[in-house]
Amino acid sequence: MNRINLHLVSDSTGETLEMIAKAALAQFDDPSVNRHFWPMVRSLQHLDRIAPDLAQNPGLVLYTLVNPETRKRLEEHCRHLGLPALPVLDQVTAALEAHLGQEQLHKPGRQHAMDEDYFRRVEAIQYTIAHDDGLGHEEWEQADIVLAGVSRSSKTPTAIYLANRGYKVANIPLVVESPPPKALFGLRQPLVVGLTTAPERLIQIRRNRLLTLNETGETAYVDSERVKEELQFARRMFADNGWPVIDVTRRSIEESAAAIIRLVQERQRRDRQIDGVGKPI
Fold first, then answer.
1. How far is Cα 273 from Cα 281, in angstroms, rounded to an integer?
2. Cα–Cα distance measured from residue 237 to residue 230, given in angstroms and rounded to the nearest whole number
3. Contacts with 224 (C-beta within 8 Å, 6 or more apart), sequence order
4. Rounded to the nearest 10 degrees, how much is the dihedral formed by the CA atoms of 20, 21, 23, 29?
5. CATH 3.40.50.10700 occupies which residues in the chain?
6. Does the structural domain 116-276 have CATH classification 3.80.10?
7. pLDDT band at residue 193 under the 50/70/90 scheme
8. Better pLDDT: 53 or 2
9. Mean of the pLDDT values across residues 26-34?
C-alpha cells in the first residue's frame, strides 16, 4: 500500500486537529500515513512558506483556521496544486451557530485560553503526580477519584489521562501482604474505583515489564497461581466495600477513563437528585 501525505494545518497548537485525525485514522487497518504538522499558522507569510512542502508532498490537507484571510490563502494554494482540503470543524461550527443564534468569534486558539478550566487541569495533574502509587494518603480526601488495583493494572496511565481531563486522581497498589492505609476505607468525597484484568493478560504485561528491567528469571510476580490470588484479593476488597469495578483487559486507557468518568457523572446526578428533595448528600 502506498503511503499518503496528511497535512495538518492549525492556527493554534493543533491538538484538536491531531485528535480528529487520529480518531479518523483509527477506523482503517494500519494505514500508511506520513504526517506533516503545521501548528500556529496565523499569517499569510507563514502559509506561503508552507506551500512548497505541499507541492513536494501532495496529499490530503486538513485544517482548522478561523481567520478568513488565512483560510482563503490556504484554499488558493490547494486549488492551485490540485490538493483536497477539508476544514474539519466547519459543519460543527455552522450547526452551533444555527442553534445558538450567534456567529463564531473567529479567534485562533480560543479553546486553549488560560481560563479556569486550564488552571483546574494543571492543578489536577500536579495532584495526580504527587499521589501516584499510594503516596500522600493523608490528602486522598481531596481527590475526585481514587483508583485501586494490583500492580500493572493500568492505574498510573489511567490516572494521568483523567488528570488531563481535570480530575484529581490518587492511585494505590493492592498488595496481599501489605494492607492499604485505613484512610482508603473512610473516604467520602472521592469515588473509589477498582481496576481489574484477566490473569493471563496481567502476567504478559508483568513479563514485559521484567524484560525492560533485564530480569529474565521466574518470580512470584509472574507466577500464575500467585497472580490469581492477587486478583481475587483485590476483587474481594472491591466487593466488600461496594466500589465499582472496571475490567481493563480489553479496554484502552481512553476507554477505561471514559467508563470511570461516566461513573463519576452518574454519582453526581444521584447526589443532585437526593439534594433536590431536601435530603443530605
1. 9
2. 11
3. 199, 203
4. 170
5. 4-111
6. no
7. very high
8. 53
9. 86
The one-letter amino acid at 6: L
pLDDT of residue 93: 80
Q: Give the phi and the psi of residue 248 in degrees, each rounded to 5.
A: -95, 5
Q: Cell digits for 45?
A: 507569510
CATH class of the domain at 4-111:
alpha beta
Residue 47's closest CA among 93, 85, 91, 5?
Answer: 85
Q: Who contacts 191 (Cβ-Cβ below 8 Å, separation ≥6)?
A: 144, 145, 146, 244, 260, 263, 264, 267
Which of 195, 145, 184, 191 minimizes the C-alpha distance to 168? 145
Burial group, residue 229, by CB count within 10 angstroms (0-12, 13-18, 19+): middle
Cell of 217: 528469571
The residue-averaged pLDDT of 90-117 equals: 70
| Lowest mean per-residue pLDDT among 1-5, 100-104, 252-256, 273-277 | 273-277
